[in-house]
């Protein structure tokens, strides 16, 4: 039996009252998983699932605004996903670009592309770079990282590559780099350089793994796994994740 919306509304109100703004995460990462499985269960195509998942993003960012979460990272396409059927990948790339352009058109969020865009077809990479440039001056309540063509190992490899190139331009030898190398040097060259690490990562669809998401940044991150497919992810699910986070004792390795 379907639960009436008024019941969800009352439950959400109760969840909100139980949240202490001082305990909420400053950076939430989301692995938007389950679009294709949602489509199969609904008798629809994979593209329909991706579009439905893209439609959920505005709603989710609005929820983040309501509880004053200043930074959100949304993982839309992994480097592993680039191995999919070319036809599906082309359709997915178009959905992602349209979603990013729609977000930019709303004008409420500054968007930052996180990933190896050079691995994408040039058309898609150019559109995503244009979105990032076009929202650079937006001062919204939430800053949004769009993780596209993103992989944690790829990010670390790119960070090390950037560090070595910088050292080369400075005329430093490999021995000099090795002798002085520290974790902060690599962190400065990550895609998220200058941003705080995620406090909470939410993964939808029931998969209980990280799949390489923000490998470097999530050493002290709290993880929350939700059974719901991303297109069906509700405000109730989000508030439950926040409640769970607030109830945890974060020792941060101490």
Estimate the mean pLDDT confidence. Answer: 94
Order of helices and strands: HEHHEHEHEHHHEEH
Helix content: 40-55%
Q: What's the level 1 CATH class of the domain at 24-155 and 197-208 and 219-245? A: Alpha Beta
The total strand number stands at 6
CATH architecture of the domain at 24-155 and 197-208 and 219-245, by name, is: 3-Layer(aba) Sandwich
Number of helices: 9
Look up the CATH topology of the domain at 24-155 and 197-208 and 219-245: Undecaprenyl pyrophosphate synthetase
Explain briefly what this protein structure is:
This protein has 254 residues and is of the alpha/beta class.
What does this structure look like?
The structure is a single chain. This protein has 254 residues and is of the alpha/beta class. It has a domain at 24-155 and 197-208 and 219-245: 3-Layer(aba) Sandwich (Undecaprenyl pyrophosphate synthetase), CATH 3.40.1180.10. It contains nine helices and six strands; from the N terminus they run αβααβαβαβαααββα. It has a six-stranded parallel β-sheet with strand order 3-4-2-1-5-6, with helices on both faces. The longest helix has 21 residues, at 46-66. The relative contact order is 0.18.
Task: Please describe the topology of this protein.
Elements: H1 5-17, E1 27-31, H2 35-41, H3 46-66, E2 71-78, H4 86-106, E3 109-114, H5 122-134, E4 142-150, H6 152-169, H7 174-180, H8 183-187, E5 200-203, E6 222-225, H9 235-247
Parallel strand pairs: 1-2, 1-5, 2-4, 3-4, 5-6
Helix pairs in contact: 1-9, 2-3, 3-4, 4-5
Could you list some keywords that capture this structure?
single chain; 254 residues; alpha/beta; Undecaprenyl pyrophosphate synthetase; 6-stranded parallel beta sheet; 9 helices; 6 strands; globular
């Amino acid at each position: 039996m379907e639960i009436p919306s008024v019941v969800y509304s009352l439950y959400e109100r109760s969840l909100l009252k139980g949240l202490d703004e001082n305990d909420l995460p400053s950076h939430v990462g989301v692995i938007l998983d389950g679009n294709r499985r949602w489509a199969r269960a609904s008798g629809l195509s994979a593209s329909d699932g991706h579009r439905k998942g893209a439609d959920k993003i505005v709603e989710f960012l609005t929820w983040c605004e309501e509880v004053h979460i200043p930074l959100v990272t949304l993982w839309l396409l992994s480097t592993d996903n680039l191995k999919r059927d070319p036809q599906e990948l082309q359709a997915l790339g178009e959905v992602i670009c349209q979603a990013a352009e729609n977000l930019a058109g709303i004008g409420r969020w500054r968007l930052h592309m996180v990933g190896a865009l050079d691995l994408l077809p040039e058309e898609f990479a150019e559109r995503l770079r244009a979105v990032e440039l076009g929202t650079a001056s937006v001062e919204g309540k939430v800053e949004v990282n769009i993780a596209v063509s993103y992989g944690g190992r790829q990010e670390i490899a790119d960070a090390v590559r950037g560090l070595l190139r910088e050292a080369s331009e400075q005329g430093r030898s490999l021995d000099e780099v090795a002798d002085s190398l520290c974790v902060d040097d690599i962190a400065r060259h990550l895609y998220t350089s200058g941003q705080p690490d995620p406090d909470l990562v939410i993964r939808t669809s029931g998969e209980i793994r990280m799949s390489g998401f923000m490998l470097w940044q999530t050493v002290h991150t709290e993880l929350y796994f939700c059974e719901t497919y991303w297109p069906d992810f509700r405000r109730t699910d989000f508030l439950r994740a926040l409640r769970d986070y607030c109830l945890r004792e974060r020792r941060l390795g101490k």
